[in-house]
Amino acid sequence: MMRRILTILCLLLILLPIMGEAEEPRKVVYLTFDDGPKQSTPELLELLEELDVPATFFMVGFAVRAFPEYAFEIYEKGYAIGCHTMDHSSSGIKENPEQLESILRRFNEEVQKATGDAQFATTLFRFPGGSTQYPYAAKKKVTDLGYSWFDWNAMTRDTYSDMNKKEILKAVKRTTGEQEVVILLAHDGKKFTRDALPEIVEFYRENGYEFRQLADTQEEREILSRCAAHLAFPEQ
Ligand SMILES: [Zn+2]
Question: Where are the domains of the chain?
Answer without folding.
Answer: 28-232
